[in-house]
What we know:
6-stranded parallel beta sheet, binds adenosine-5'-triphosphate, globular, Rossmann fold, 14 strands, 4 domains, alpha/beta, about 50% helix, 29 helices
Amino acid sequence: xxxxxxxxxNELDAGVVEQICGYLTEDPPRSYFLFAGxxxxxxxxxxxxxxxxxxxxxxxxxxxxxxRLRMYGRSIRVVTYTKNAVAVINGxxxxxxxxxxxxxxxxxxxxxxGFNDDIRAALVAVKQAQLEKExxxxxxxxxxxxPAKQRDLDEIKADIEALKLTDVFIYHPDRETxxxxxLAHKHVLDATAWLxxxxxxxxxxxxxxxPIILIDESQDTMKGMLDAxxxxxxxxxxxxxxxxxxxxxxxxxxxxxxxxxxxxxxxxATPELQMNHRSQRRIVTLINRIWEAELEGRTQxxxxxxxxxxxxxxxxVVRLFVGDTSRSPEEKLAGERWCADQMRQASGSDxxxxxxxxxxxxxxKLVATRGSFLDAYSAMVLIxxxxxxxxxxxxxxxxxxxxxxxxxxxxxxxxxxTDGVIDEFKATEVFRCFGxxxxxxxxxxxxxxxxxxxxxxxxxxxAASANPGATVGQVLxxxxxxxxxxxxxxxxxxxxxxxxxxxxxARGEEESKKDRIRRGWCALFAxxxxxxxxxxxxxxxxxxxxxxxxxxxxxxxxxxxxMDDKLAGGNQISYDKIFGGVQLSKSDWENxxxxxxxxxxxxxxxxxxxxxxxxxxxxxxxWSSDPEAALNRITxxxxxxxxxxxxxx
Length: 649
Ligand SMILES: Nc1ncnc2c1ncn2[C@@H]1O[C@H](COP(=O)(O)OP(=O)(O)OP(=O)(O)O)[C@@H](O)[C@H]1O
């Protein structure tokens, strides 16, 4: 018997690749925005289009385009969100000199590197605009420019002066860059966006090299860059064609546009992928319901297509568990184990009893608490809030000023055996690798003295790091004392400063950046050393507890989403508001009145992303401040049936 009738509905999107090939080969070509929902196979679609446009798969007009590209030495540029995505696309595409795939950071740096005068002008202009904006905002406040704010503004002015004195800018898209002229990832994007808008030669170079640019995860792509690129494609036939792929329902970073679909010009094509190839029917139905929900406090439109599961994926298990958020962390952990057991019974899968399910706890503070590295994480947030947590691009390695702690000392620690004995061969390798053997004294007596000093410091480091009660400060003492590694001046200055931590600001009180950072250093030096290793694992995205970084583009057979606002940190996200355990706040209503994005909007998208990672079974665990109210609201909604709801006792 033929299988065709059973799978007939799986072919809903069969024509989309050809549609897109049509847009790109029209004369003049047409830009497009592809609505590609969760699990819709957008990478596959992208790769199939690229194969046709570069002559790998036979396609009449694609072949002509490939010949033109080759004749003028041009290529199609694909911009992705992570290095991992670059590898996936390159792997599926194989050797193809007509396509260049890179992250947005690498793409931008390729365009501007070496143009030092332009980079300087761009960064000064960007900082100047920031200074003017922040000054105007502070002046508009009832208390005007406070001394703390003035210090921040002075810092921006000092940054501008430093930029003016910088001759050469250096950067590497794959890692943090240090030293004179080093640029942060964000600055490279800012500078490129500014230059594309203000330097017509750069626009010409861009079009000449890459007449077609396809951007994956466009909902999270930095808006400045996207705006700059979108402004060049009009009018049609201008020499640049854009293809934006994305799912605005899955926007989880604040860099992107809040409602990209509404910004897409009417002249663009808007193809859609309607299938969800990843999840069982029950999960697809749930994510459709979540996105359509008419919730109080929602301002984002419910635009986008309803998804269809594959016909053979007709099952799936979903459960919602509600517990009291005032329970202790230990009780919550026990509660979550009970939920896993319920999931095992409902799904019949032993994965739930063997810990082989993915726990998604997206709030960084919740991950830090469950992972026992909250002190380390909180200190890093104070030192540099923008780099303390991993980002979706996978580029984040923690605050620059603490890199020695996270890299050199981690490697040195790995040379110490469980018995406390140092593997000298391995330790020498570490010092060699960080260039610490290059400037040893030439005279043998001096040299022996230095070796002895280093050995003593390493022994003291080994003893301190093996002590379970040791703090970061205690472990650092011998390292800094013997100058074992090159140290960021901010770290050594903070360590030498023995003044006490400034008091934390009272609620509503403004704190200067300097005080905040000082509090961070004091907290870090007092943090148990053992937490740093866990923090490092988390930054690298290798934690069992997933972060945003893991979630982007990932899929797992069984997923447990833990929602606990108490540990969410900040008021950006509130699951309890979505599920009815907490009422909307005054500022939520003000945002609704102004049509601005609300907590409900952000949380709904996060919920959408997490739920859509699950293939077979999905457990949602809500720790609510009013479980009864939440349960009533959930029962009224059509998200779950009665037998899918459980109370955690
Ligand atoms: N046409 C298809 N037929 C069968 N399976 C497919 C098809 N396209 C994708 N898949 C499978 O469906 C799953 C989801 O695909 P993929 O991860 O590419 O989706 P996506 O659009 O990138 O999703 P998300 O945005 O949610 O990360 C994968 O397991 C993939 O192998």
